[in-house]
């Protein structure tokens, strides 16, 4: 029994010397985000929202997804990329189901993307399946 008490006491004393982990405050997180944004500078965001035709099959929609997802590997001006499908419970999407979110360093890079042969070829793939599209570009603040 005495060895167990000795072991417990040794562990207790060993843990007393450790510094407690400091929790990050909300203010510190905000300052970190602000500093990161200042270092990176403003970015141009290009948001694309698609509504697919009811006649487009799941396979055709998947083909469009795959073709869009391939663009960042083909167009070096794309500096950031994400995409996903709508899951908002608000039912305000007006039938738009797919969101593509691209980041560029400049308007010139965005314009290169818009006229790039791979982007134009993507237009040929997506065109027959799109019932509606919305595009919004903005500079981050």
From TrEMBL:
<protein>
    <submittedName>
        <fullName>Dabb family protein</fullName>
    </submittedName>
</protein>
<dbReference type="InterPro" id="IPR013097">
    <property type="entry name" value="Dabb"/>
</dbReference>
<comment type="subunit">
    <text>Homodimer.</text>
</comment>
<dbReference type="InterPro" id="IPR011008">
    <property type="entry name" value="Dimeric_a/b-barrel"/>
</dbReference>
<dbReference type="Pfam" id="PF07876">
    <property type="entry name" value="Dabb"/>
</dbReference>
<feature type="domain" description="Stress-response A/B barrel">
    <location>
        <begin position="44"/>
        <end position="138"/>
    </location>
</feature>
<dbReference type="InterPro" id="IPR044662">
    <property type="entry name" value="HS1/DABB1-like"/>
</dbReference>
């Amino acid at each position: 029994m005495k060895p167990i008490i000795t072991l417990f006491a040794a562990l207790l004393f060993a843990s007393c010397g450790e510094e407690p982990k400091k929790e990050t405050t909300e203010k510190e997180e905000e300052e970190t985000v602000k500093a990161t944004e200042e270092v990176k500078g403003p970015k141009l965001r290009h948001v694309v929202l698609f509504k697919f035709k009811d006649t487009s099959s799941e396979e055709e929609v998947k083909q469009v997804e795959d073709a869009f997802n391939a663009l960042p590997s083909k167009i070096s001006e794309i500096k950031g990329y994400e995409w996903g499908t709508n899951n908002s419970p608000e039912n305000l999407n007006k039938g738009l189901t797919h969101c593509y979110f691209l980041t560029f360093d400049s308007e010139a890079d965005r314009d290169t993307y818009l006229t790039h042969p791979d982007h134009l070829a993507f237009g040929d793939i997506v065109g027959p399946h799109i019932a509606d599209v919305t595009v919004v570009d903005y500079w981050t603040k």
